[in-house]
Amino acid sequence: MSQNRLLAILLSVLAVLVLVVGGLSAVLLLSGGGDDDESASSGGGGGTTTESGGGGSDVAAAASGRLRLASSDPITLDPHIAGDATSAEYIVEIFGGLMTLDEDLNVIPDLADSVEISGDGLVYTFTLKPNATFHDGRAVTAEDVTYSLKRAASRELASPTALAYLGDIVGVREYFFGLADDVPGIQIVDDRTIQLTIDQPKPYFLAKLTYPTAFVVDREQVESNRNWTRRPNGTGPYKLTEWRLGERIVLEANENYHLGAPALREAVFLLSGGSALTRWENDELDVAPISVNDVERARDPNSDLGPYYSTWPQFSISYLAFNLEQPPFDDVHVRRAMGMAIDRERIANVTFSGMFMNATGILMPGMPGYVQEDLSLPFDPEAAREELAQSKYAADMPVIQITEVGAGAEASIDMQAFIEQWREHLGLEVEVRQTDFASFLSAQDRRELQAFSAGWIMDYPDPEDILDIKFHSESSLNDTGYSNPEVDSLLEQARVEQNPDRRLSLYQDVERLLLDEASWLPLYFGVNHVVVKDNVTGWFEPPMVIPRLRYITVER
């Protein structure tokens, strides 16, 4: 999920990058590794009805064994406030909402049994599955859904993601800012039926409901136990049965899961222990990420790692961001100059041994709207110097400080290379400040950072989830202060455009404008590199955070 999601370790390379997930912030630890209390069919009146495909993994009546994974403690297990990918990896397994993403990234009903969309595209009527229950066996009702959505949107909770993912529902924005006592766009029809009304017909609305902010929580538990997230009563395919801080987290299959009993009986996340690859080689883990130190060995099909090695392109991007509200980045010439003075492709291919793909734009390969043409600023030191000469700061450059997540004595290895290139080609001295992840997110949200190394992992496969959410001037997740009336207008047209080709064309126009103005400097598209034991069947690294454990089996 940046601020959509911490990626559990996306890659273990020798630097620290921050990927901000669609709604999740992802810290890529590029380094090595206590108990408490659809089918869509035409519906009546010109509307659309989507029904649950049912099933799931019910072939696994006898669930397979224990899967051992490396990870870290989540920042929170409250789905309504989570903004990092590590937390989301657990949350999507423990909780669920009206809709979900399957292993092929299709938006399908989760707690919903069917969805009927009115002819004007404004009213969504959800009927809940009769067998949808919380982990304690209590049936999920429309009241549970209503409570959860209103809690997520409440002023008291102040969720950092509520407006971005629930703000299309009529009345959510007023409710969030304390201007209304209720949300008229959320209505209970009966115990198993709920109606959501949105402000405009938006083809991506169901996809937004797959994000954790829209997940259902148990009101009684939330309101009676302030430590409820240590043993949450969710509705997802797995139950949290153990959480020892800094040691391990255990998820156990929910045999009564409404989409079918999970194939995997238990997942154990080991939160300490040193190098994940060493533990994998010692048969302590079933899956391990590969670092830049070991990638050549893994790529050799004749090596001991080769037969177990695989790569998985991700819907994620790492980038440098500039705060347009602070000098000198209020000047487009400074931003463009710094973009053209760095050789991103060489760093991706040499420094990181080709483990990442050089980012050629904002939209990733495989994402709707992606174009093969390289839209990014070229590496051109002479043009960079010409840009800088046009800047109002050319003769009096303010101090430039870039913030990144980390606690090392030096900047990350790619940042060191960028600093040297800015010095060599532009004569700029750039400082680097490192901070812990929580402080970074807080300062980023408040637009306090002059410039920062960050990233984004998509929440659902739609350009709106990055171009609109990160760059519309009124978006709550716009953390650079970017504002362009032309971009806003194109994004607002795309929100309601029903012709898919026309809609993607609008997003492509937006992407070109954004790259030309260099609010972001795209660096790399993510690729996961892993080794997997041969007794694990069905393992996959989805390009986004989705519930995946129930599709995997282990012979143990």
Concise account of the structure shown:
The protein is α+β, with helices and mostly antiparallel strands.
Structure commentary:
By secondary structure, this protein is α+β, with helices and mostly antiparallel strands. The chain has a domain at about 315-525: Dipeptide-binding Protein, domain 3 (Roll), CATH 3.10.105.10. It is about 25% helix and about 25% strand. Strands 16, 17, 18, 19, 20, 21 and 22 form a seven-stranded mixed beta sheet that branches. Strands 4-5-9-10-12-11 form a six-stranded antiparallel beta sheet, with helices on one face. β7 (about 100) and β8 form a beta hairpin. The radius of gyration is 23 Å and the shape is globular. Mean pLDDT is about 90; it is low at about 5-45 and about 55-60.
Which secondary structure elements does this structure contain, and how are they paired or packed?
Layout: E1 3-4, E2 15-21, E3 23-30, E4 39-42, E5 48-51, E6 64-70, H1 85-94, E7 99-101, E8 107-109, E9 112-117, E10 123-128, H2 142-152, H3 162-166, H4 172-176, E11 186-190, E12 193-197, H5 205-208, H6 219-224, E13 238-244, E14 248-253, E15 264-270, H7 276-281, E16 287-289, H8 295-299, E17 309-322, H9 332-340, H10 344-351, E18 357-358, H11 381-390, E19 400-405, H12 413-426, E20 430-435, H13 437-445, E21 451-457, H14 464-471, H15 485-496, H16 500-517, E22 520-532, E23 536-537, E24 553-554
Parallel strand pairs: 6-15, 19-20, 19-21
Antiparallel strand pairs: 1-3, 2-3, 4-5, 5-9, 7-8, 9-10, 10-12, 11-12, 13-14, 14-15, 16-22, 17-21, 17-22, 18-22, 23-24
